[in-house]
Input
Amino acid sequence: MTDIREFCERLWKGEVDTVTEAHPVTTPIANREAQEIADGMLYYKGFAGSTTLDTGDGLVMLDTGARNDSEPLYDAVRRWRPDARLAAAVFSHHHVDHIMGVDRFDQEATDAKHPRPLVYGHELLGGHFDRYKKTTGWNGAINRRQFNVAGLDVERRVPWPEEYRYPDVTYREELTFSQGSYSFELHHARGETEDATWTWVPELKLLAPGDLFVWCCPNAGNPQKVQRWVGDWAAALRRMAALDAEQMIPGHGWPIFGADRVRVSLLDTAELLESMESQVLALMNAGASLDTVLHEVDIPAVTLEKPYLRPVYDHPQFVLRNIWRWYGGWYDGEPDQLLPAPRAEQAREWVAMAGGLEAVLDRARTLAKDGNVRLACHVVEFAVLAEPGSQAAHGARAEIYDARAGQQTSSMARGIFSYAAASSRAGKRDGFGG
Output
């Protein structure tokens, strides 16, 4: 088993590649493990992180993992503390990779005729569970595109949950509860979600920010998910940085040890978010379109090269779009897009003007061969829209989107592009909608 502290040291120094070796989100199940990283503190790195504290009077879990983490996490906790009851759990937000691990402990308590663990979360959390229940099919579809886990068949392997463990205790702005030797200070912040909770355990100088820190460019712009709040997010990071935490357990990625490192990682992330938001607002206030925003905001490469800010999951352009959405709505400033003709009708017209499908496919392949894969995607998309039954069009589309996916450091972008390629190999424009 890898020593986590040693691994975290190498990770901080940039000696571990967060794309291939230590992606903060896509940890293979075979590599998920638990380890005591401090006295009475068990850290489990699954799809998301989960930390269990032995308070001397029961255990408290800070996030509880995804559904396929629930069994290995339970087993790890029971190997570590066979007889200690789980007294409480804190859900940092409603995303399903953080909230699915309590059921085994609930059942254990019921069997022993003990009280179930108390689950703490923000007051808005339950409403998002209700929203998930209304959009089960939609969430299954967008997540199999985003993660491209098993091509077009991922919904059969990773169906979206239909039942959730609602919190027992909710709060609005702040809440502190005590368990054994420790106090748990819960603080609300809007960031990746509107129900985010970050937790401070002062006796341990331990900070658990949830997904407000995830060991990469913040997940502040996911193109398929609901609104995110960049300015509030940055403010929360600055508030956390002022605590001088000596250890931080991120929502994704690995622990950070040492007050200086915790502080600089939080402040650098806040500065990145603030810079993006201020630049977007300056352009919006000057009357710019979304297209101008996407291509004129400047993010220094040196910032995105820091090990904990590399865009290996979300993409900076996605963040810019989310800032635009929050301040400006969905209209992108392009008048032809306000009440558009159907995309397929547009495509047929453009293909006809270009001289037919064969000419369009030749142009798409030429663009890709010359290195302009981004533009080739636009061209080949119109080819498939114009003639959705064309094997030649789908073949070119699969090739071009495979190439586009291969250019991405953002696994979110890579997953969506790879899904598009897989759809065309199946003769469809989208494996979900046809």
About this structure: The CA atoms of residues 175 and 358 lie 64 Å apart. The radius of gyration is 23 Å. Confidence is low (pLDDT under 50) at residues 149-156.
